[in-house]
Amino acid sequence: MTAKHRIIQVGSYAGSPTANERLARDYDVVELWKYPDRKAALAEHGKGIDVLVTSASFGCTADMIEALPDLKAICSWGVGYETIDVQAALRRGVQVSNTPDVLTDCVADLAWGLMLAAARRIAYGDRFVRAGGWGQVHGSIPLGARVSGKKLGIVGLGRIGQAIAKRGAGFDMDVRYHSRNKRDDVPYAYEGSLVDLAAWADFLVVATVGGPGTHHLISRQVLEALGPKGTIINIARGPVIDEAALVQALQEGKLGNAALDVFEHEPKVPDALKANDNVVLLPHIGSATYETRRDMEDLMLQNLEAYLRTGKVVTPVSA
């Protein structure tokens, strides 16, 4: 009987239908999250391990990479990789892969769900009906805002940003975007100033990458430029928005609405956001559909299998 290839799994894939089961079936898995002392576990089991599997939630630090002298590939479940020290990996010649594309449509769909929920006060209305407010008081919930025909600003025009922009055409929206560089392959207007984009937009969707380069990119100035009738939607990473500035702008009426799937200190969400009826909150579920989670799982495993078969991952992260 052929021995199973040994790998390290940093954390349990609770959000994936069968990833843990498939990994355990096909590989000899060192389940790192079960060890109270990770450093000792890496020292004991790390020699000879050439593949590590992880996700943006679990990450992979430079110290972990250093503790695995034979590591050659890091296969991550999910599109984000800001918690993986990619530079440290590349310096060691370690390939890093993620699972792009397969979650694009579901995350873009959720961005639109959040936009509509904020504009039309859907979450507020749901709470109003459940609490018995309908019929017990004169009138109904406060008026919402129309989405069709409005101005849509997108921060970050990668795969997900483009999918969000494409959906805007169905709502007859004027779409502009801001990113580090202007693109020549898209039909949308580029705005070099993020503050100017916010001042122009009715809805501003954050779809950029996370990490140090975009930390607090959505600043107090940007939020106040969006203004008391504007709505911010975030399906990217929580720290891209200065959360303290967001809370203050909402409380002071300098920003109209916020619809958020991600937060700066997950899973902690400020009480001020929970208590604000102009805020829609979701628990980081952008990719949380049966179809997308299975596709992410499949691609993560394809990267692992491809490395072991050919020495190359399928969807490498370059930097």
- Beta-strand proportion: 15-25%
CATH structural class of the largest domain: Alpha Beta
Shape: elongated
What is the number of domains? 2
Estimate the helix proportion, in percent: 25-40%
Mean pLDDT: 95
Termini separation: 40 Å
The assigned structural class equals alpha/beta
- Major pleated sheet: 7 strands, parallel
Q: Strand order across the biggest sheet?
A: 8-7-6-9-10-11-12
Poorly predicted regions are: none
Element-by-element helix/strand order: EHEHEHEHEHHEHEEHEHEHEHEH
Q: Judging by the overall fold, what is the CATH architecture of the largest domain?
A: 3-Layer(aba) Sandwich
Compute the number of helices: 12
The CATH topology annotation of the largest domain reads as Rossmann fold
Mind telling me the C-alpha Rg? 22 Å
Number of strands: 12
Domain D-isomer specific 2-hydroxyacid dehydrogenase NAD-binding: 113-286
InterPro entries: D-isomer_2-hydroxyacid_DH, D-isomer_2_OHA_DH_cat_dom, D-isomer_DH_CS1, D-isomer_DH_NAD-bd, NAD(P)-bd_dom_sf
GO molecular function: glyoxylate reductase (NADPH) activity; hydroxypyruvate reductase [NAD(P)H] activity; NAD binding
Keywords: NAD, NADP, Oxidoreductase
Could you give a quick summary of the protein structure above?
It comes from Bordetella bronchialis. This protein has 319 residues and is an alpha/beta fold. It contains twelve helices and twelve strands.
Keywords for this entry:
five-stranded parallel sheet; single chain; elongated; 319 residues; 2 domains; Rossmann fold; seven-stranded parallel sheet; alpha/beta
